[in-house]
Amino acid sequence: ETGYDLWLRYQPVEAQWRDRYAALVTQVTAAGGTTMLVAAGELRRGVAGMLGYDPVRRETVIGDGAVVLGTAQSPLIAPLGLPLAKLGREGYLIRSAAIGGKRVTVIAGNAEIGVLYGVFRFLKLIQTRQSLDDLDISDAPRLAVRVLNHWDNLDRYVERGYAGQSIWDWQKLPGHKDSRYTDYARANASIGINGTVLTNVNANADVLRPEWLARVKALAEVFRPYGIKVYLTARFSAPIELGGLKTADPLDPQVARWWKDKVDEIYRAIPDFGGFLVKANSEGQPGPSDYKRTHAEGANMLADALAPHKGVLMWRAFVYAAENPDDRHKQAYTEFQPLDGKFRDNVLVQVKNGAIDFQPREPFHPLFGAMPKTPLMMEVQITKEYLGFATHLAYLGPLWEEALQADTFRPGKGSTVAKVLESGAATGMAGVANIGSDVNWSGSQFDQANWYAFGRFAWDPQAKAEPIARDWAAMTWGNDPAVTGPIVRMMMESREAVVDYMTPLGLGHLMATGHHYGPGPWIADLARPEWNPVYYHKADARGIGFDRTATGTNAVGQYAPEVAARFGDRKRVPEQFLLWFHHVPWDYRTRSGWTLWDELIVRYDRGVAAVEAMQAAWKPLAGKVDARRWEEVRDFLAIQRDEAGWWRDASIAYFQSVSKRPLPAGHAAPAHDLDWYKAIRTPYAPGNGK
Ligand code: BDP
Q1: Which of 188, 463, 529, 671 has the highest local Cβ count within 10 Å?
Q2: In this predicted complex, what is the ipTM?
Q3: What does the record give as the active site (predicted)?
């Protein structure tokens, strides 16, 4: 196997299960539009693969075991009086029932897309060997906009992409629609993703030209039956670049007119176009501040153009400015919080999960809970820019669960980030995609799990990482507990391992220049202070860490008082954030009784040991999973082991040059001296954004 089939492998079930399932899936009944056809087709495909036959297709129930697909209005379903109303447009219900005295399973939704989601859930029951007797399942998404953000350039280069080129083969579109687009849509629909932003946040206005919109339209047509809307990134200066205007000032009537006309043109081609995603006045992108306008003024102008078409505007809060000497942690809050309540109803402010930038571990972003009158959506990074690209095994479920379950204390105790997301007048979650042209889609077998988990968390931000890992492992690798057991354990420990060998105890952003792959804690010579790792760790002879308490930058003051009190107190802050918020002496005693210096070394070693434990756990799975995928994972784990050692050694060599302390007994010295690590160059690492 190559991994191309993702979690939709539909491998034959064991004989003892086959007969049980087959009795309950004798026939498929479905009538409706294209999405219903897709749903019925997927069901047949799954049954063919897993049970080995094509079920009978009839419009009436002819015997026991029919699976009846339909909406609330379908003639077979309406008389059943199912409680569908509260499930919304995308929810579904799966229920064992009787029609005309025959035993059936009904998969119903208010709209056809709900039925498709229900079919994927039904197939998952078989994929994970659950009983199909006496089913009574209902489910509905808790967030409305569940989108992938592709950082894909028009030349197919993927910024921070480690899985090959962009899967959008623009050159051949619209003439040729690669079958991969359909498989992409299937995979996304199977986990409830209902939107895709096709283009990079560092946007190119060209995609808004008519000849490009024709290509976008072709993709939208492939995705539509799967309930997936397309969105584009809008380059704020497009009225100048494409429209020949002298300004992109959002308050200039000509500019507003240009956008309105452009949006109308898009909707003529794509009537269900989702809307725009905008990165403005961030890392060199144009935006309203260029004209001394606020983010709200910029966003609202675009939102007004989209509103008549029910389009959504996603406006990113990822801002920090070279001219601003303030702590980077604070800048987004400082700029956006005062704008609470000033955005139009169809604007979602898109906030990264952490305060700075997709690090292996960060405290939650202080904007969550702080803008109660503004819908906020959370952005996470599925592609592992800061967690070892596609080669390191790191399951991100625990990271996202940690962020979503963080308590903002706004307005009071129990106001988790997940609840803040759910409470908005508009709701959503975005994941920066890790998808590319590689045969396995994500650059590694295990990174598929992160795509999968993103869909599950966007559907239900209250979800838990471990059951998601279990589902994914069973569908992707097989149901043998001797396989899923070790795989789930590896996954659940993997992210903490990365934190330990890269940035333990609340450190962050210590990557070497440009590529963000290897360690570079010594780097101090880049133009902007906050581009340098030394800005983040602030190690000196006395100690290490960033004082963000009241004696420092007071970033803690941006959180609710309860949170600020905890983060701001060295004794109460969760140790995992110690150095994020505090500058701590090297001989400070940590909770385990070590000195901080010793604790740091212990953690680095623990991270490396955890990778070795993953290698040991993977070894006995040879022969229990297919050889090709097994070997790929084995090789990647070996790379990860080497590079975890590189991170550990380079970090210790550098910090020791500052702390001037000996390593604790039993912990090996770095293999080389500091200059050796400093000399390592990786100028051709993928994904640099060039
Ligand atoms: C940073 C990435 C950069 C992105 C930026 C963003 O290094 O490539 O453009 O995030 O989110 O982490 O806009």
Answers
A1: 188
A2: 0.99
A3: 283 (proton donor), 357 (proton acceptor), 385 (proton acceptor)
